[in-house]
Amino acid sequence: MTALETVNAFLVAAAKRDYDTALPLLTDDVEYQNMPIAPVKGRAAVKEQLEMLLAMGADSEWKVLREVADGDTVMNERVDRFQINGQWADLPVMGVFVLRDGLIAEWRDYFDLQTIMGQLAEG
């Protein structure tokens, strides 16, 4: 798989909590950080962080709007959507992924936490 294909396969699987597909696309020592939150390291910690974040909704989907790859670095602009109490909340996200040996070794997401919190307060 190309770097873009790996990242996109990971995003689709992770958004649906398909960890059997998602986690093997990460290195053992992967570092993941949602920029408003402290970084975590390792596949188990990434799964724990995702479980915490995804628990706020019944479903989620992460739509890639634009993406670019340069060697082992992938950057994408996304809208991460979360179904909460029957309604969808949208969160614009900028993601940066660095791959090593075909697997995601670094993943950082940049977003404005108040964007989603405001939608949750309205709902």
Describe the structure.
This protein is α+β, with helices and mostly antiparallel strands and 123 residues long. It has one domain (3-122): Nuclear Transport Factor 2, Chain: A, CATH 3.10.450.50. The protein has four helices and six strands. The chain has a six-stranded mixed β-sheet. The radius of gyration is 14 Å and the shape is globular. The mean pLDDT is 93.
Mean pLDDT: 93
Given the C-alpha coordinates, what overall shape results?
Answer: globular
Rg, alpha carbons: 14 Å
Number of helices: 4
Strand order of the biggest β-sheet: 2-1-6-5-4-3
**How would you classify the helix and strand content by structural class?**
alpha+beta
CATH architecture: Roll
How many discrete structural domains? 1
CATH level-1 class: Alpha Beta
What share of residues are in beta strands?
over 45%
The number of E-state strands comes to 6
Q: H/E series, N to C?
A: HHEEHEEEEH
Distance between the termini: 40 Å
Main β-sheet description: 6 strands, mixed
Helix content: 25-40%
Find the CATH topology: Nuclear Transport Factor 2, Chain: A
For this entry, what is the oligomeric state of its chains?
A: single chain
Query: Which parts are unreliable, with pLDDT below 50 for 5 consecutive residues or more?
Result: none
